[in-house]
Amino acid sequence: MAEAEEQETGSLEESTDESEEEESEEEPKLKYERLSNGVTEILQKDAASCMTVHDKFLALGTHYGKVYLLDVQGNITQKFDVSPVKINQISLDESGEHMGVCSEDGKVQVFGLYSGEEFHETFDCPIKIIAVHPHFLRSSCKQFVTGGKKLLLFERSWMSRWKSSVLHEGEGNIRSVKWRGHLIAWANNMGVKIFDITSKQRITNVPRDDISLRPDMYPCSLCWKDSVTLIIGWGTSVKICSVKERHASEMRDLPSRYVEIVSQFETELHVSGLAPLCDQLVVLSYVKEVSEKTEREYCARPRLDIIQPLPETCEEVSSDALTVRGFQENECRDYHLEYSEGESLFYIVSPRDVVVAKERDQDDHIDWLLEKKKYEEALMAAEISQKNIKRHKILDIGLAYVNHLVEKGEYDVAARKCQKILGKNAALWEYEVYKFKEIGQLKAISPYLPRGDPVLKPLIYEMILHEFLESDYEGFATLIREWPGDLYNNSVIVQAVRDHLKKDSQNRTLLKTLAELYTYDKNYGNALEIYLTLRHKDVFQLIHKHNLFSSIKDKIVLLMDFDSEKAVDMLLDNEDKISIKKVVEELEDRPELQHVYLHKLFKRDHHKGQAYHEKQISLYAEYDRPNLLPFLRDSIHCPLEKALEICQQRNFVEETVYLLSRMGNSRSALKMIMEELHDVDKAIEFAKEQDDGELWEDLILYSIDKPPFITGLLNNIGTHVDPILLIHRIKEGMEIPNLRDSLVKILQDYNLQILLREGCKKILVADSLSLLKKMHRTQMKGVLVDEENICESCLSPVLPSDAAKPFSVVVFHCRHMFHKECLPAPSLNSPAQFCNICSAKHRGPGSAILEMKK
Length: 854
Fold this sequence. Notes:
Elements: E1 2-4, H1 12-16, E2 30-34, H2 38-45, E3 48-53, E4 58-62, E5 66-70, E6 76-81, E7 87-92, E8 98-103, E9 107-112, E10 118-122, E11 129-132, E12 143-147, E13 150-156, E14 162-169, E15 176-180, E16 183-187, E17 191-196, E18 201-207, E19 221-226, E20 229-234, E21 237-245, E22 257-266, E23 270-277, E24 280-286, E25 288-290, E26 297-299, E27 303-309, E28 314-322, E29 336-340, E30 345-350, E31 353-359, H3 362-371, H4 375-384, H5 394-408, H6 411-422, H7 426-438, H8 442-445, H9 458-471, H10 473-482, H11 490-503, H12 508-520, H13 524-534, H14 538-546, H15 556-562, H16 564-573, H17 580-586, H18 591-604, H19 613-623, H20 628-634, H21 640-649, H22 653-662, H23 666-677, H24 680-690, H25 693-703, H26 707-716, H27 723-729, H28 739-780, E32 808-812, E33 817-819, H29 836-840, E34 848-853
Parallel strand pairs: 1-28
Antiparallel strand pairs: 2-31, 3-4, 4-5, 5-6, 7-8, 8-9, 9-10, 11-12, 12-13, 13-14, 15-16, 16-17, 17-18, 19-20, 20-21, 21-22, 23-24, 24-27, 25-26, 27-28, 29-30, 30-31, 32-33, 32-34
Helix pairs in contact: 3-4, 4-5, 5-6, 9-10, 9-11, 10-12, 11-12, 12-13, 13-14, 15-16, 16-18, 18-19, 19-21, 20-22, 21-22, 22-23, 23-24, 23-25
CHCR repeats: 568-712
Domain RING-type: 791-839
Family: Belongs to the VPS41 family.
């Protein structure tokens, strides 16, 4: 349960407050402060008996008959000496310009605070309550009620005289009254009544539940939530009543309005005051507890609860125990709860103290979160409501959060939060870095340092780099990769790395990082040297990016040893920067690398490296024989004699065969295939490629005494040489493997050839006939002849300009046109006429298709 306490030196309640309540994790809904200044002075000599609240000021009545007007800070603005005895009640109209006061000696006063009008009357009994009309300022509403043993309504007549009428009597003293609009609610010993001032009718009677309680010790609390909703608190019972209009059909002799109890529930404690708070209720409760030591009841601190009313019960939203001065001697009737509707302010009035409760705002919410060390929630709340908070700054909350995380040892989280909290404030960043340095946690904040906007002093970054260099080479290397080189003094860090390399010269991490630092410093030569030493993959990227080809002319062997594939691609892509001649010279002592380079060059362009083709023959023979034969076939620049010599020396049969055939010595090539390779299929393939009858004759002669070779020839020779030539030469009695199958295959191949020829003949005849028909259809079509056509012989228009003049035109199928007289006369041997143009061009003569005469 939260407490509303204000520590004051020498206060009486501190000496009697022996219990300590556990701190609640639930945030209170209200905040509290004592009304001080003039109120403190008043209550040191007097005791508060009643109070009423207006939006502009407060009115406080005392046991010594004084009425004080106070501002909201508790300062005294006016003082009225009304009576020598206790002021029972003060009432204000809505304008705050008229006030009614009643006292224990029967005095009643109603007067204007800023006008001369007033009403004075002294009754023969104590007047407990008074209520002026809410609109007393209006001339038609000059009314007020007072209550002692009976409830009197005072009205001013048109002659400015006051007349009174009894609204109710006979049920004991009137204890409480509240006036809202046209409705007056009051409580006596028997219950609560509501009177409609317009219709002059009493519309309800709500009886008291617990009649065992003395009404003077446990008075009824009344509160209008709005113009038709009355809240009644009496003893431990709370009722919410709604005034409703009665339907016309139900009127009869009944009042035009009736009251319905919409909610009713019991509380644990006795109610001392009520006030609305949106759809909830604020309840001031009187508390009595039993001492564990003496087992006697004593007055405990009063409670202010916020409850959510339900139809038959309620839910407690919050509950605060209030340490008011002198609570040990107070009774239930000594407490009052007044409220200001406009600002949701609640005043807890007791004889020796006035405490103000108000709804907590975002600043108060943040205060509570900070008190509970819920910094992240406080920071979030401040960011959401940054336009509404007045006492807090997001930055201050954030810094407190960072400090809290550091105190808890959550350094990484604290450093991460700095990004959001410190933002672009370079000074605060530097301050926090030094704080992390003091606790030895520079590594924690390093990943989150700003690298662009803002940029901190170079010393900050250098300090962190030195920290990593002393204890974490990998972390140091990571920062060098991630941080831009202009954040720190590069030369200082380079020197520091070199100093460490003196102790550990082979440390690859430091060497690589030093190379990166050299790159930032544009010292590419040193960087390249380190990368090559480390055989690092970034060496080629570095060369390309910074155009370091002039620096690698003497390092080609190193590059090839590191990654020959990438090195060759790079060298070939940049021939204009490093010539082929230079590369070959550099690789002279490493022929295997020289071969890799020249081979890739040959693949790209067969002619660029022609000067080295003779050299490549030996290189292929030594390091890459599978690619020798393709090279010999594709190259037109290699010397064949030299190649033949090398291949014969190394006994490369296939390569020698190719070279012999290329040099025109096909018989020697065939002989080598037969004698060295003993491969009849290869020999047959070679003979097919050369397509030389003498080779076939040599092949047959060589194979005639070798049955396996004869079988191979029989299977493959059929389409190139007449098989009869071979069969006639086979000696009788020679056993030839698979002879029958070979002969069958020869016959099948022959039949297949005959079928193919016949099929081709049929296709040829069908196509010829189809094309002939197409040509005939085309030639049978008419040909348009008009004025634009000319005679191909005399080049004048075919048709005469005078349509009446007779003419004769000859049109050939080739679309050439002539005047008949322009064509030569047909001879006796060949009466048919032909187009002179097509005949001259050997296109085939076209016979005349049309002769036009007129």
